[in-house]
Every structure is written in structure tokens, then in C-alpha cells.
Amino acid sequence: MNKHICSRWAFDLSTWTPTLPQLTHAVAAIQPEERKRLMKFHFIDDFLSSLIGRLLMRKFVSTCSNVPYHQVQFARDVRGKPYWVQDQQSESTPPLSFNVSHQGKLVLLAGVKGDSKDDAEFGIGTDVMKIEYNGGKPLSEFFRLMQSKFSPQEWSYIGRPQHNERAQLKALMRHWCLKEAYVKELGVGITVDLQKISFDMDTTHPLEEASSPLCGSTLCCNGTPMTQWHFEEHLLTPKYCAAIAFRNCLPLEHAKFEFLPFEELIEQSPKADQPDVVAYCQKALLKPHKRHE
Ligand code: COA
Ligand code: MG
């Protein structure tokens, strides 16, 4: 299996309170249809998570392809998965695969770059989850509702006798991230029977920030080992776990997610102060905040 250069970038929204000029700069960089979509969010938190995801994608494609930041074009497939609209004329642009995930205060991008046009049969998916449950009902009730999403083998790992409630929740979230990362590479949403996707966890080390990433978890679909797939599991903070699914590719090296400051997401973009974008951002900044975590 070919080894590829891999980017793992994270953004922590709790470190950023956008000013109007910063937000204007960011919003000016994204496509009009995405601006329209973002404005539909009720909370500013969701607006910003999704916006940062768009900036991460733009930075990734622009950095890997040398296409100027503002010229990168994205579209979404029928299931909503974003992809890069590559210039067919250009022979030199490499095949890329990337995926974004956001939850709570974190936004992640995982991306891989192929060597040549002949090396395009690979892909990547990622998912991040906050390890918490505050659904109101007892945790046992939540687990009962989740029953159909996990295989018997996965439940036996999640419910290990040495797992207290917190460890069970963490184990469940780890599985969830792995499944979502897999499903997101495929781009098929929740049409897959999740119980038939069964992960066998890497148990060499507990998943901690220091031990991240763990790379030994494996997947069986309908009992068949999925040998073309490779997984990384990360703990980014004590409360956030994430997974990356690699199809037909392996990262050149296993590494942690790198936290980027806002300025690095936008530095290649020309500053902007178009009145319509400023007015749009003023409106966005009036959106309510979620209760802080
Ligand atoms: N496939 C892959 N990526 C997609 C996608 C698709 N069909 N549609 C959107 N995305 C990308 C986008 O960049 C999106 O960001 P945006 O909403 O700002 O545009 C990002 O992935 C969203 O990912 P994430 O933050 O992880 O969202 P999610 O986990 O809520 O949803 C879905 C992921 C939409 C792709 C899909 O898998 C889904 O509907 N999941 C439902 C949850 C579920 O039942 N999971 C079971 C796992 S055990
Ligand atoms: Mg998700």
C-alpha cells in the first residue's frame, strides 16, 4: 500500500473570539453558497465551527496544489460531502483527499496527498467526539438506545468489567468515531448498517494524549477483514477523541493533530472589506452563543 503525506490539523474555538475584521476576512474567503448555508445556523458556535472547517479545507488544498487560496473551488456531492473541483486542464495537480469534522470546541481536518494522477484510488475520513453524556436520562438508557449501532464484539469491549462508567463512555465514543470516520470516507452518511461494521480495538495502550495516535484498531465488515483500511485514534484533550480512516493508503508517519491559530488559516487570503460581507458578519455576530462548556 502506498504511503502518503498526511495533514492533521485542529482548531480550538475556545481560543478565538472573532473580531469583525477577522470574521470579514474569513467570510470573504468562502464561496457564496456556503455563506448562505452558514447564515441559517441559529447559534454563532455552529456558524464558526463550519466556517473554520471551510478555511481548513481551503488551506489544505491550496498548500498541497499550489492553487492560490482564493481560487480553490469546492462543491458538494449528492450526500453533501465536500470535494475539490480540480482544474481538468492542469496536469500537475496531485490527487487529494480530505475530510472535516467538528464538535464542541474542536474542528479537525485530516487530509492526504497522492503522488500522481495514477495514484488516485485512496481516501480519508475523520470524526471527532466529545466524551460526555448529558442527555438527561441515565447512561444505561443511552447505552440501550445505542444497542443497534454496535456489534456484540464491540459491546463486549465497551462493557468490560474493568470499565467504570466513564471508561465505558470513552470506549463507546472511540468506536463511534471509528465508525463515523469510516462512513465519512465512503461519504454515504448513515445508510450503512452500523452493527455490521465491527471494530477490534487496539489494546496495546490506553488511548491518552501521550499515546496518541493508536494505530492498531482493525475493521471487519460482515465478518470480512477490511485489509485495505487503516485507522488512527487520537485523544486531543482529555475530553475529545477522534479517529481517521485511511482507505488504500497509509500515512508516511503517524503524528498528532497540530493546533493552528486563526491567522494560519487565513494568511494566504487577501484582506477584504466589501460592505456586503461586513454587513453579513455584523449580522452573524448577533447570533446567540451556546452555553459554555
Ligand atoms: N460524507 C463525509 N463527509 C461529509 C458528508 C458526507 N456525506 N457531508 C458533509 N461532510 C463533511 C462536511 O465537511 C461537514 O462539515 P459541514 O457540516 O460544516 O459542511 C463535516 O463532514 C461534518 O462532519 P461532522 O462534524 O463529523 O458531522 P456529523 O458527525 O454530525 O455528521 C455525516 C457526519 C453528515 C457525514 C454523517 O455521517 C451523518 O449523518 N452522521 C449521523 C450520525 C450517526 O448516526 N452516526 C453513527 C455513528 S456510530
Ligand atoms: Mg461527527
From TrEMBL:
Q: Which reaction does it catalyse?
A: apo-[ACP] + CoA = holo-[ACP] + adenosine 3',5'-bisphosphate + H(+); apo-[ACP] + acetyl-CoA = acetyl-[ACP] + adenosine 3',5'-bisphosphate + H(+)
Locate the coiled-coil region(s) and give their ranges. none
GO terms for CC?
A: cytosol
* Highest rank taxon of the organism: Eukaryota
- Every 4'-phosphopantetheinyl transferase domain range: 123-245
Q: Which GO terms describe its molecular function?
A: holo-[acyl-carrier-protein] synthase activity; magnesium ion binding
Per UniProt, the keywords (alphabetical) are: Transferase
**4'-phosphopantetheinyl transferase N-terminal domain: from which residue to which, for each copy?**
15-112
Q: What is its EC number?
A: 2.7.8.7
A GO biological process held by the record: lysine biosynthetic process via aminoadipic acid
What family, per the record? Belongs to the P-Pant transferase superfamily. AcpS family.
Q: What name does the UniProt record give this protein?
A: L-aminoadipate-semialdehyde dehydrogenase-phosphopantetheinyl transferase
Q: Which organism is it from?
A: Drosophila mojavensis (Fruit fly)
